[in-house]
Amino acid sequence: MLNLRTINYQWDLVSNLVVRDIKLHYRRSVLGILWAQINPLLSLLIFSFIFERVVPLGIPNYTAYIFTGLLGWNWFASTVNNANYSLTQSRDLVRKPQFQTEMIVIISVTTNMVNYLLAMPVLFGVLLINGLTPNWTLVYLPLVMGIEFIFILGLALLVSATNVFFRDVTHIVNVLVSVWFYLTPIFYQIKSDNKYVLLINLNPLTHIIQAYRSIYFDRQPPDLFMLAIVLVISLAVLGVGWTVFSRLKYSFVDEM
Amino acid sequence: MKQKVVEINDVWKRYYVNSGQRPRTIKSAVASRFRYWADRESYWALQGVSLEISEGKTVGLIGNNGAGKSTLLRLIGGLSKPTKGKISRKGRLGSLLELGAGFSQEATGRESVITGSIIAGLTRKEALARLEKVVEFAELQDFIDSPVRTYSSGMFVRLAFSTEINLDPDILLVDEVLAVGDLAFQKKCLNHILGMKEKGKTIIVVSHSMEQINAVCDEVVWLEHGKVRAQGQTKEIIERYRNRVFEKGSQLSPAAAKAAAIAILPETETSPKKSELVAVAGASAANSTSVARNETGFRPTAPTKEMRTGATNIEFDEIQLFDETGQPVKTLLSGDPLVLQINYTAQTAVNQPIFMVTLRNADGLKCYEVNSQEDGTLVGQLPPGAHHLNMYFGSLPLVRGSYFISLGVYAQNWNETYEYRYKACSFEVEGPTTGSGIVHLTHRWEG
C-alpha cells in the first residue's frame, strides 16, 4: 500500500522533472522541440559529408549506418558530460530535505533518453530512405536501451558525486569521453584483422552500439550473449556508482 | 503520553574549518601530500545534543549565530549525517528550507507550483488537487500562467512560500522565514502556521525573532556553542536568553559590546525586506544567501548593510538625524525629541509610496516600527525629482545605549520595495545609569 504510493510518487517525480527539463530546454525557441530532431540531423550531415565525400570509408548506406550508432552515443556522452554539473546546478534540490539526491542523476539520464526517443522518427525516416524497413527485431530495443540506461546511470552517479569534491573530474571526464568516442565504432566499422580490435571490443559501449545496429541496420536479433556480459558489467558499474554516491551524498550539502 | 516524532540522541557534528580552502583539485591535494587531511582544523558545531520532540509540539530553536541551530535543523531534515549519535524521525517531512526549489525563471507559476509540490513530496495528483489553494494563498490568480521571470521578487517569494506551506506535512521545519513578503502576507503565514499547530502538526522553528518564537512556540531550546543550554517553556527561556544577551553586553567595553550585539543580530536583518527570505531560506549558518538557485539564474542578493531591491523608482539620498533646534545629532538624552530627515529622489512619478521606519537597539531588538500608511500619512502623487520627508519624534524615552533606524520605502500596495536600508542611521542615548530594558520609565520609590 505504502509502497504503491512510493512507486507512484517516484514515477511522478521523474516524469514531471524530465518533461519540465525538456519543455524548458526548447521553450522560447521558434522551432521548439523540432531542435531535438534538427540537432542529430545536422551532425549526421557533417559525418556523411566527411566520410562519404571527403575521406570515403566505403560503408554502404553510410547515413543510416552512422545514425544508428550516433543516437546511442549522444545519449551516453551528453549524460556523462552533464553529470559534471548536474549536482552543482541543482543546488536547490540537493539542499531540499525531502528530496532524494539520486533522483537528480536519474532524471538527467532519463531526459537524455527522451532526447533519443524524440530523434527516433528522423532515424526511421533515414532508414526508410535507405530501404531499411524496420522489422520485428525492434522488440529487442527496450532491452538494449535498458542496459544502456543502467550503464550510463552508474557512470553518471560516479562522476556527479566525485565532481562535488574534486572539480578535476570535469576535465578528466571531458577528455575520456572524447577518447571514448573514437574507441566506439560509430562512424567507422571494425574489421576483425585490426590490431586494436581487442581494445574496441573491451569497450562495453561498442556492444551496445552494435546491438542497436543489429536491430536498425541489419534487422537481425542482437548478440544476446554479448549483451548479457554488458548487462553484468553495467550492473557492476551501477553498483560502484550507487555505493560511491550513497557514501558521499551526506557531505554534498557541506561541500556546496 | 504523546508519541515522540523526533528523537535526537547525543548528536555530535564536526565541521572542518578550512573546508573552504581545501584543495579543489587533485593536483593541489597531491602537491600538499594530502597534508591538509591531517592539518585541517575542525570544530564541533554540535556537541552531544539530545532532544525529544513530541507529536503536536511547536518547538523553537534559539541561540546566537553559530550556536548550531541551523546545523541541527539540517540534521533533523536528513540533509547531512551526524558525526556521532543518532537522529530518528517519524512522519512526513515538510520544510520551509530552500524555498522555490525546482522553480525556473522560464516556467509559468502554475508549472512551478506543480513541480515544487512534487519535489517536496506530493504525487502529481495531490499537487494538482492543491494547486488552486496554493495560488489563492499566494494571491497570484491573475499571474499564474505567466513565466516566473516576469514576477517581482515579492511575488516569487509568495508563490514559493505558498507552495511549501500548503503541503500538509506531519513535521514542518522552518528556518527564519516567517518574515516574508509584505506585512499582510506575513500575518497570513503566521496564521497558517498557527492553524497547522492546531491541527496537531509538529513544527520546529529556527528564528532570531523572539516575537515570532513567542507567538508560535510551546517550547524553546536554547543552543549555545553546540550544546543545549536550556530548554523549557517559551516565556521563561526567552527571558533567560534575553537577560544573557544584555548581561554579555554590559560586561564588555562599549565598542566590544556593540560588536557582540551586532553578532547576535539575525542575518536576515542585513538584507532588505523582500529579500529576507532569500537570504535566510537555507539552513546554512555560514552561508546566509542560500536561495534556490537554478540554471536560469535566480540570483540571491548578497546581504549588505545598504541595499535596494526591485524597482528603483525611489532612492534615498541622505538620511540624517537632527535635534529640535535643527542641529545634526549623534547623541541625545533619554526623553529628548528627535527629527529624522529623509532626502530622496523619485526617478519616475510615484503614487503614494509608503515609508516605514524601524527603531532597534544594539541587540537588534525592535523598539518601535511604524509606517506612513498606517499613520494615515499620504505622501501623495510624487513628481520625479528630489523630495524630503521629516519624521518628528516628540520624545524618545529610551534606556541608555546604541540605537539604529532602518528605513524602507515601498509601493502603495506593498508589492515593491523601492529601497530598504537596514542601518540607515544610528545614534546613542545617554541617560540615567539605572535600570535596563528598552524604555526608561520614570519612577520613584516610596517607603
List the defining traits of the structure above.
heterodimer, A: 256 residues, mainly alpha, 77% helix, globular, B: 447 residues, alpha/beta, six-stranded mixed beta sheet, 11 helices, 26% helix
What's the arrangement of secondary structure elements?
The complex is a heterodimer of chains A (256) and B (447).
Chain A: H1 2-26, H2 35-54, H3 62-89, H4 91-94, H5 102-129, H6 141-165, H7 168-182, H8 197-202, H9 204-218, H10 224-255
Chain B: E1 4-16, H1 26-31, H2 35-39, E2 42-54, E3 58-62, H3 69-76, E4 84-89, E5 93-96, H4 109-119, H5 124-138, H6 153-165, E6 171-175, H7 183-198, E7 202-206, H8 210-216, E8 219-224, E9 227-233, H9 234-251, H10 254-263, H11 276-280, E10 306-307, E11 314-322, E12 331-333, E13 338-346, E14 350-351, E15 354-361, E16 366-371, E17 381-382, E18 385-393, E19 401-410, E20 417-430
Parallel strand pairs in B: 3-7, 3-8, 5-6, 6-7, 12-20
Antiparallel strand pairs in B: 1-2, 1-4, 8-9, 10-20, 11-13, 13-18, 14-17, 15-16, 15-19, 19-20
Helix pairs in contact in B: 4-5, 4-6, 5-6, 9-10
